[in-house]
Every structure is written in C-alpha cells, then in structure tokens.
C-alpha cells in the first residue's frame, strides 16, 4: 500500500534521486568515529544541528503558553515553569539548549578552523557558517529578554546601551530594537517577533545554504 | 537550435527548458570518496547510526542537566530597581568585560564597540580570504594558528574575569541572585507546609485597625514596606501572610533577638516585652486564608 503510494508519487515527481543522493553519499573513513576515535571532532556540526532542532521544537511548545506583553510575560513563564505538566522540562531544554548550541557551534567552528577546511573551494560555506554563528548570538540576546524578569530586563538595557554607542547608526539600532523611548512593552513585542520569526527564518535559509554547499562540495579530505 | 552540431547527437535537457544539461562540468558532482584510502560507507543508515550514538550520549547528558537544574527565573522586571547588578548571558561576558577597560570605554567607546570587535569578527568572517595558502595543517600555518589561539586565550580570560567580578560584586553587596532567592523561598514555603508560593500582593492585611499597627509603623515598616509587602530584591520578607509560616512564639523570638546575622535587627532595646508580645500576636494572625 505504502509502496504503491510512493510509486504513484515517484512516477510523477521523480523523488527517488533526491533522497537517494542524501542517503547514499559515501562518508570517508577519516571523519568516522567508529574507525578513528579522534574523528569525534567531526560530529560537532551534526550535534549543533541536532540541538538546533531541539531548540525549534521546544520553542514551538513554549509559544503555546508564552504571552509577549509586559503584564503577562513573566506570569506566563512562571505558570509554565511551575504549573504546566513538564513545562519546567521543556523550558529547561530551551534554556540550556541555548547555551549548548553555542558551545557546539564554537567547537564546530574551531574544528573547521584548525583543520583548514575553510580553504578553497569552501570559502563561501565558511562565510555562511559565520553568519549562522551571528544569528545564533542574536537569538540568544533576544531570547534572554523574554521571561521579563530583572535579569532579562537589565541585561537588555545594557545591551541596547552598548549598541547605541556605535557611531552614526547607533541611535537607529537602538530605536529599532527598543521600539520606543524606554525598554518596555514595545521592546518585548519586538524582541519576541525577532526571536520567533525574523531570526529563525534567516537561520533556516542559511542552514539550507550550508547543507546544500556541503553536499555539493563534500567534506574536506584527510589532512 | 535545440540540436547539437551533429544531428544524431543525443541531447539531454534540464526539465523541459531550453537549457542543455551540462555533462562533465567541473565541481558539480561531489568527489568520489573511493578515491580516499580506507573504508568509506554510506551516509544512511551506516554512518548516521554511528553519529546518532554520539548524539544519544549528548542527549542523555543534556536531559540530565535539564532535570537536575531547572531553568532560572527571578522576580518580575522592575525598572525602578536600582540595586540590581546587570549580567548578560555567559557567552556575551567577554565583550561585556572588554568594554569595562578604560582604553575602550568613555571617549574611546567606539574602539571598544566597533573597532576591535569589528576587526576581530571581520577577520574571522573573512578568514578564507585572508589565509589563502594551500596548507591546511594548523601547525604549518603558524600565523593563523597563533592569532586564533591568542583570541581564544583572551576570550577565556575575559569571561573568567567578568564572572569573578560578578561574584565579587555579589559578595560585596551581600546579594543572592534573584533566581536562587526565589527557589529558596519556594522551598522554605513548601517545607513549612504552604501549598504554593502566594503572590504577596493578593494577601490581605488582617485586622489592620489594631493598635499593634502603630508600633509596626514606627518600628518595622521602614524596612518591611509601608504596604507590608517587604522588598524582594533586597531580601526583606513580606509581613502579609507571615502567620502562615511562623507561630507567635517564633515571631517573639525573631523580634526579640533578630535574624539572619543582623539583617533583621533585635528590638529588645526599643520595644518592651509587652509591645513585642502585642506585635507578635497581631502578626501571627496574618494568614492568607
């Protein structure tokens, strides 16, 4: 039955080559931790993606409870953390995953750097990877404000002050992030929108480019 | 036009457009790994299963952390709270600490926010165009490697200094971070049999016309708040609902001898035993329900 459905679709769209290309490509020995234990350093990229998937899924569940306004943001997080079944676990995964994804990405970047894998012909993939890094930091910064407790509030205030000190464009960056005269209701809705829509959208596009390029060029050879 | 120079040549098109499919063009197919020595294997399922094993180890560690250490949550943001020590998330600490140094702050702040980080992150972003040599092994690229290791050392150093500085500030101002404070309170409340941590604001004052209130106004409310809600961020507990967690005898003891190493002073000298008894009796009546 399932095979019939698959064949019916495949006849029309020729989908087999797409997934066979992903499934069948050969993975060389020098990146395989089953052959060389030290090759675990090549796992950091995959683990970054794994944690990113966890972040997306846990974040989706968090938005089922989170209310992005200054009266209810804290209360909704408090409710989620202490009253909702497994709410503390899901929020914990998102909170600690945010740190872990930075750690994994940092290690992945160092692996690529020290194995010289960013060299020709993979320059573009390195640049895209660095952009992903900056997006992740942006996600960390915007997500930090959302629980709307004192720690979140004052860290964001300092962050916006730092951004303001950039010459010429600083005041505009401040206005863009803050949305008003003070860090307040509009800042929270903006940070929420940036954290949940803008940055993840950019992240997914860059990840697609990152993976497309690695498939096209293959992983770098042994040293 | 659709045909090649030779009319009998088989022409393959991309889809149904007039773009001819390229054959044998360089760099369009991934390299064949059978060219490498050793045992290569298919991505799915062989390799992915091995990578998944690494993933599972990470996942278990991650879930253990998540369950052992609940995500922190302090008290609601209060813009008028001047005593709060601002602290970014740990991965921004290096930048936060960096901006505290005098030669990248004040008049030179542009150097600190745009100049040096701009050069450092710009160089990182454009690394493939700066380090263009063919050599890939790090020990054969001394300049690039040395620059990276120097950056890493400064990164770790700045983060460590920033964290130490924060701990020092906490110790100096005798502050417990809010999320710890909150957790402790919740635990204390749970231990003393209170079902939930009630929002203080919702607890009414019982029998507010009692003459004990005059003594309270004179002696207690300068710290515990004129609304008796205490002051969360400086660790002063609310007096509303205090009867839920303390008996009259406990309250007499606290008022007479103080608590928390002088955080709550002793009122032995300023109140008579009768007055203390009167205040404690009234406070013991302050129950949420």
UniProtKB/TrEMBL annotation, chain A:
Q: Give UniProt keywords alphabetically.
A: Membrane, Transmembrane, Transmembrane helix
- Which Pfam family name is an example for this entry? Cytochrome_B
The residue ranges crossing the membrane are: 39-67, 96-114, 126-146, 192-214
Residue span, Cytochrome b/b6 N-terminal region profile domain: 5-223
Cross-referenced CDD domains, in alphabetical order?
A: Cytochrome_b_N
Name the PANTHER family for this protein: CYTOCHROME B (PTHR19271)
The protein, known as: Menaquinol-cytochrome c reductase cytochrome b subunit
Q: Which species does the entry assign this protein to?
A: Paenibacillus plantiphilus
Which gene is the coding source of this polypeptide chain?
Answer: qcrB
TrEMBL record, chain B:
Q: Membrane topology per the record?
A: Multi-pass membrane protein
**Per its UniProt record, what PROSITE patterns does this chain match?**
CYTB_CTER, CYTC
Q: Residues in domain Cytochrome c?
A: 207-287
Q: Which residues form the Cytochrome b/b6 C-terminal region profile domain?
A: 33-161
Listed A to Z, the keywords are: Electron transport, Heme, Iron, Membrane, Metal-binding, Transmembrane, Transmembrane helix, Transport
**Which coarse location class applies to the principal site listed for this UniProt protein?**
membrane
Q: Which SUPFAM superfamilies match?
A: a domain/subunit of cytochrome bc1 complex (Ubiquinol-cytochrome c reductase), Cytochrome c
Ranges annotated as spanning the membrane:
47-68, 108-130
The UniProt entry, under InterPro entries, shows:
Cyt_b/b6_C (IPR005798), Cyt_b/b6_C_sf (IPR036150), Cyt_c-like_dom (IPR009056), Cyt_c-like_dom_sf (IPR036909), Cyt_C_IC (IPR008168), Cytb/b6-like_sf (IPR027387), Cytochrome_c550/c551-like (IPR051811)
Q: Where in or outside the cell is it found?
A: Membrane
Q: Which PANTHER family match?
A: CYTOCHROME C-553-LIKE, MENAQUINOL-CYTOCHROME C REDUCTASE CYTOCHROME B_C SUBUNIT
Name of the molecule in the record: Menaquinol-cytochrome c reductase cytochrome b/c subunit
Q: What is the originating organism of this protein?
A: Paenibacillus plantiphilus
């Amino acid at each position: 039955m399932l095979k019939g459905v698959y064949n019916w679709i495949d006849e029309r769209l020729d989908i087999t080559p797409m997934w066979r290309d992903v499934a069948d490509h050969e993975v060389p020995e020098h990146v395989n931790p089953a052959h060389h234990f030290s090759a675990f350093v090549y796992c950091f990229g995959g683990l970054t993606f794994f944690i990113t998937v966890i972040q997306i899924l846990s974040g989706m569940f968090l938005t089922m409870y989170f209310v992005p306004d200054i009266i209810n943001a804290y209360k909704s997080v408090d409710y989620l953390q202490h009253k909702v079944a497994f709410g503390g676990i899901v929020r914990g995964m998102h909170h600690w995953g945010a740190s872990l994804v930075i750690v994994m990405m940092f290690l992945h970047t160092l692996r690529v750097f020290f194995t010289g894998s960013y060299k020709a012909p993979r320059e573009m993939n390195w640049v895209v990877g660095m952009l992903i890094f900056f997006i992740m930091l942006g996600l960390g910064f915007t997500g930090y404000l959302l629980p709307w407790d004192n720690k979140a509030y004052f860290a964001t205030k300092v962050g916006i002050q730092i951004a303001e000190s950039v010459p010429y464009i600083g005041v505009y960056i401040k206005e863009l992030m803050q949305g008003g005269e003070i860090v307040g209701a509009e800042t929270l809705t903006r940070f929420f929108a940036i954290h949940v829509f803008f940055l993840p959208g950019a992240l997914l596009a860059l990840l697609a480019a990152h993976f497309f390029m690695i498939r096209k060029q293959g992983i770098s050879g042994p040293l | 036009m659709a045909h090649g120079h030779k009319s009998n040549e088989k022409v393959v098109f991309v889809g149904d457009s007039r773009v001819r499919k390229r054959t044998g063009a360089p760099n369009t197919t991934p390299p064949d790994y059978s060219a490498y020595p050793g045992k290569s294997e298919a991505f799915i399922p062989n390799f992915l299963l091995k990578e998944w094993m690494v993933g599972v180890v990470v996942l278990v560690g991650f879930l253990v952390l998540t369950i052992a250490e609940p995500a922190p949550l302090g008290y609601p943001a209060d813009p008028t709270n001047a005593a709060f020590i601002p602290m970014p998330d740990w991965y921004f600490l290096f930048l936060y600490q960096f901006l505290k140094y005098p030669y990248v702050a004040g008049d030179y702040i542009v150097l600190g926010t745009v100049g040096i980080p701009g050069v450092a992150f710009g160089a990182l972003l454009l690394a493939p165009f700066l380090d263009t040599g063919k050599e890939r092994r790090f020990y054969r690229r001394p300049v690039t490697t040395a620059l990276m290791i120097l950056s890493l050392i400064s990164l770790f150093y700045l983060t460590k200094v920033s964290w130490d500085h924060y701990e020092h500030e906490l110790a100096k101002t005798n502050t417990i971070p809010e999320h710890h404070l909150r957790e402790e309170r919740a635990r204390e409340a749970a231990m003393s049999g209170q079902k939930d941590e009630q929002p203080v604001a919702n607890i009414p004052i019982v029998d507010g016309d009692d003459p004990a209130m005059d003594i309270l106004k004179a002696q207690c409310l300068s710290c515990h708040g004129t609304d008796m809600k205490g002051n969360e961020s400086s660790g002063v507990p609310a007096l509303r609902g205090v009867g839920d967690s303390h008996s009259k005898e406990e309250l007499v003891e606290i008022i007479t001898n103080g608590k928390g190493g002088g955080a709550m002073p002793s009122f032995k000298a300023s109140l008579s035993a009768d007055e203390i008894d009167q205040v404690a009796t009234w406070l013991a009546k302050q129950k949420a329900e």
